[in-house]
Known about the structure:
Blueprint: H1 15-19, H2 21-33, E1 45-49, H3 54-65, E2 69-74, H4 79-84, E3 89-92, H5 98-105, E4 110-115, E5 129-138, H6 147-156, E6 160-164, H7 171-183, E7 192-196, H8 200-209, E8 215-219
Parallel strand pairs: 1-2, 1-4, 2-3, 4-5, 5-6, 7-8
Amino acid sequence: MLDHLAAIVPSSVTLEEAAAIPTAAVTGFQALVRPNKGGLCKGDTAFLHGASDGVGSYTVQFAKAMGLRVAASCSAKNIDYVRSLGADLVLDYASGSLAKAVRQWESEGVDAVIDCLSGGTLPDALEALRPQGKLISIANLTQDGDISGDIKKTAQLGFTRIFAFVEYDRVGQELGEILALMDKRVVKTPPLISYPLEAGPQAMQRMKDGGIQGKIILKVG
């Protein structure tokens, strides 16, 4: 039985929308909720770096649905979009020190930084954290550097460094919770950029180019 890997899609969610959930939405959901990752609760604070792509778009909404206070970064052209997802503070990630801006918003630092871009685009991430805070990096197509070394170094500074991958032991339950939020319109599907299956290479290149608002999907048939 594979019940732990699947959930029933409600009629209010299209198959195209459902196709975007298992990777992007689950990654963000687990990063926030799972005790071995964010383990965040109502009233906590989080800074989401790269909040306009597929993972970021979902994660902002999940965070707000959980009752978190959320700061987020994105490109200048996507600021209004990320604000529409519910972020309390939206920063242009080309405007200077993001950690300093986050500290001006939350003077003691945030409980967690969730880096949806990774690959060294947030070099001062630890400066945005409160003591014992967590830096969660979403693994993607970029170079993540010396993972084991970074984890050890971060621990020596009094923080926790986590590289987040999708875990499958309870993913069916989590898919069900995500779909329930979407069915109730608490969370909406981010913009979907659709490519036919044969245009897969172009879709991959578009993803590597960055600056995407929402999620890329491939249509089969």
